[in-house]
UniProtKB/TrEMBL annotation:
Name of the featured protein: Uncharacterized protein
A Pfam family that the UniProt record links to this protein: MAPEG
Compartment(s): Membrane
Organism field: Owenia fusiformis (Polychaete worm)
Superkingdom classification of source: Eukaryota
InterPro entries, alphabetized: MAPEG-like_dom_sf, Membr-assoc_MAPEG
Tagged with keyword Transmembrane helix: yes
The UniProt record lists the keyword Electron transport: no
GO biological process, one term: regulated exocytosis
GO cellular component, one term: trans-Golgi network membrane
Amino acid sequence: MSDKEIPGPTKEQKSLVFGNIKKAIILAIALTVLTYFLAPSILINTVEKRLIFTLRCQIFSVLTIMIGIQVVGGRRAETPAMDSTSPYKDKQIEIGNKYLQNTVEQIIMNKICQLILSTYIVDMKWIMLMEFIFVSGRVMFLIGYLKHPLQRSFGFAFTFLPTVAVILLNIANVLFYKPWYGLMD
């Protein structure tokens, strides 16, 4: 089939994807509000200690890569794809590989954003929230993907949109507080 013969998404497919995105936005906002009002503060005053805290929290994100490797490796062990040079094709392996690729891409953005944010804020509960959202979003992305590729939209949005919000917050911090904020003390 050429690109001209491949039909675009149906109205129902678009509705499913955008509905999932809306649900992810609502859940992320709800978790942020709950964190603001209910989570205890984790105040760390020095940039150095906040960076260390943030780096240590990243171990949970590494688990999302381990999950993907397990999905792919476990499936390979059951099929002729155990030989990775084999022409054998398997949908679950393909999904696992796409999950891994997207997870690595998202980890790069999210972790850089968390590290930058930790140089501007003193309450580390926000780093913990970002880490929780990231890990749970990646798990939901994989579960949705394995059910049906369109179902990955909730987990994708739940992971990606909070990262976009922090990118914008970090840009605002650089523009309004300047890059040297907290470094001239």
